[in-house]
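Final report, section 2: Outcomes. Of the targets proposed, MAGUK p55 subfamily member 3-like is the one most frequently requested by collaborating groups, and we therefore present its record in full.
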Amino acid sequence: MDRLHETLALLTSQLRPDANHKEDLVFLKDVFSERSLGYLMKIHEKLRQYERLSPTPILHSASSLAEDVAEELQSGPMSGDEKELLQLLAAPHLKAVLSVHDTVAQKNFDPVLPPLPDELDDELEEESVKIVRLVKNKEPLGATIRRDESTGAVVVARIMRGGAADRSGLVHVGDELREVNGIPVIHKRPDEISQILSQSQGSITLKIIPAIKEEDRLKESKVYMRALFDYVPTEDKATPCQEAGLPFSRGDILQVVSQDDPTCVT
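The predicted structure is given below as tokens.
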């Protein structure tokens, strides 16, 4: 903070001759005088110290060690200090801190996915079935589905660029959807399936039959288009996923990355 105040004094001396900067100086003084800024600078300095020191955990099981110590204390008569230590080790807040310490020390940051099923359904044995697992939070899946009029199958209609499905690289337009989190969807309506997908958080397991594409379709040439109008996806009621829409302005150059859907390009 001392350096910030020195900087402010320097700016004041530089800008004082110009009366037009009076409001700017008042604003800077108010900002530098905020207590929250001081806290942020202290946090920043602590983080920089952490980066320089690069501390490593002494052990990866502090919670287990605390439990062992508590059990050892209870095995015999305790002094006043030992009783106080036992009470401290039993405190919920300390247990939570030790649990977080172990999680960080073990670098256990990724969600644990459930194991793959041992056997596939008999009706799918002769088909090329693919089990796909996606991890998403509150974001939309980034894919739409429809009922194929000729076969009656539920297929992927569109893949939104940048969505969870697109980032995975495992779901493609034309893939037939059979199950969502173990729930058969063959006889469900597309809106019912969409509701299941939107309500699912964390790990989503899809059982799909990959679409058969012609080789030449996989080698589509790059296509660019110039926008002739402004587009705001949040105002487009026809888009299936407004959150995944790409806003653009008149005159922007857009690259077409998929032409699978004749009614929509992405």
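Residues 3 and 112 are 46 Å apart (CA to CA).
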